[in-house]
Design goal:
The protein has four helices and five strands, in the order αβββββααα. With 121 residues, it is of the alpha/beta class. A hairpin with a 2-residue loop joins strand 1 and strand 2.
Length: 121
């Protein structure tokens, strides 16, 4: 997860607060079982992307009011707009495909997630 040791994160509790405050402004549950919580925060030292999956689904106040199964959390420093926007746009494009979403739901280890993303590029 983004909050684990090894990622270039400042204060982890402040980063969580930044995510919560971002979600209060508007949901990042975009529909089709997907949420992309994303923030620019001083707590992120580099662009960081995390993935989570819920087979049961989670009520995330998504736009289509359906449970969210696939979560991509993204944090970047406030001054890194170009890379942040490029990654967000690419991820949103990939997630439009039913086959990609289905593949993500069936994966069994973290390395497979990276491979699935690389195969979509």
């Amino acid at each position: 997860s983004i909050l684990e040791a090894g990622y270039r994160i400042g204060n982890r509790s402040k980063l969580v607060t930044d995510f919560v405050n971002r979600e209060k402004k508007a949901t990042t549950g975009i529909g089709s079982g997907i949420a992309i919580p994303h923030i620019r925060s001083l707590q992120a030292k580099d662009l960081t992307l995390g993935f989570g999956r819920s087979t049961q689904g989670y009520d995330f106040d998504a736009l289509d009011e359906e449970p969210v199964h696939l979560f991509f959390a993204m944090a970047a420093p406030p001054y890194d707009d170009a890379l942040y926007l490029k990654v967000f746009k690419s991820l949103a494009e990939m997630l439009r495909y039913d086959s990609f979403r289905q593949e993500l739901m069936s994966l069994s280890c973290p390395g497979e997630v990276i491979r699935a993303i690389r195969n979509m590029e």
